[in-house]
């Protein structure tokens, strides 16, 4: 593992030349990216250098960020739509689905996504250093580690009812939430395969296919959820089983793309026994990424568990669930920008362009913050009606309206936090 990472530190050109940017700069040693050349050109006036650099970075960033945001938003919306279907079954079902999703499933999501982020960093630097053969090895190595990590998570899902009761939830609510969680068990191992594949593709700047796959799967998911919940009467277990199935559809489609696409022929050369070497080193690296993201998701889980202990747990959970669902959906925009920034920075570092890496962080942070402010304003404008998308209860709508100002503050803070936290993993890789 150490030898793999040492090889990635060679400053080799990775980016495709941009003719406009190259004409804007008269200096460079031939190994710098167009952005690095502009940032290093002291003969250009400061304002012009900043304008050119910003234009180059925005073009590179949005080509990655737009489909990445779509992927994360659509994937989150699948979970959100499942809770919407549950909510229209009744307040108890909405509370149970929210408790099962945020109290149990969110832990698995945060852990798997956090561990998968190590693939994003390693593959991004390998791609920037033109060590293309290592990307497939990292993908397989991550899949093995995440699949093994899923085994103890399986035990937590199976014991979700007594665990929730231990935390003080009512037996009736815990039982319903456990039913929902049981249907999400296959989703654990879909995460274990999906996140490494997703990061593998993103590191190569291949993001549009994942967006198309996720968008198509969302349509299938909504149709199957409607059939399972309303036509077949499968209730909570039907809704969660369909969600698990939808994630496996995404996994299968992405794997077929990797096998068949000519864009992956240099980075995927088939299964290799080399993937079984360095598992412990990869586990330590991925665990560090996972802890950071898990700490961010655990406070959501704590809020949900506390809400279930209040005098009227159904109302507390339902109103908090609406706010968290909105926050989680819009949070995916920032996560998408984080993914784009991770690819940009790791590619530039792999190619030996430190100024470009630092400038990328600055630009993506400002852009993500601006978008978050707009989101907060929109949410405040619809504070009195936004809950009716989830449930018909007027009492819940009033409670959500009172919580919306705090939600707006959360959206703004979440607009920059994922982007800033994402950069901490780069130097350690």
Automatic annotation (TrEMBL):
InterPro entries reported in the protein's UniProt record: MATE_euk, MATE_fam
TM regions (residue ranges): 106-123, 144-167, 173-194, 206-229, 235-259, 290-310, 316-337, 358-383, 403-420
Keyword Membrane attributed: yes
Region ranges (Disordered): 1-33
Keywords: Membrane, Transmembrane, Transmembrane helix
Compartment(s): Membrane
Membrane topology field: Multi-pass membrane protein
Record CDD domains: MATE_eukaryotic
Gene Ontology MF term list: antiporter activity; xenobiotic transmembrane transporter activity
GO cellular component: membrane
GO BP annotations listed: xenobiotic detoxification by transmembrane export across the plasma membrane
Family: Belongs to the multi antimicrobial extrusion (MATE) (TC 2.A.66.1) family.
PANTHER family to which the protein is assigned, alphabetical: MULTIDRUG RESISTANCE PROTEIN
Protein name as annotated: Protein DETOXIFICATION
Native organism: Prunus persica
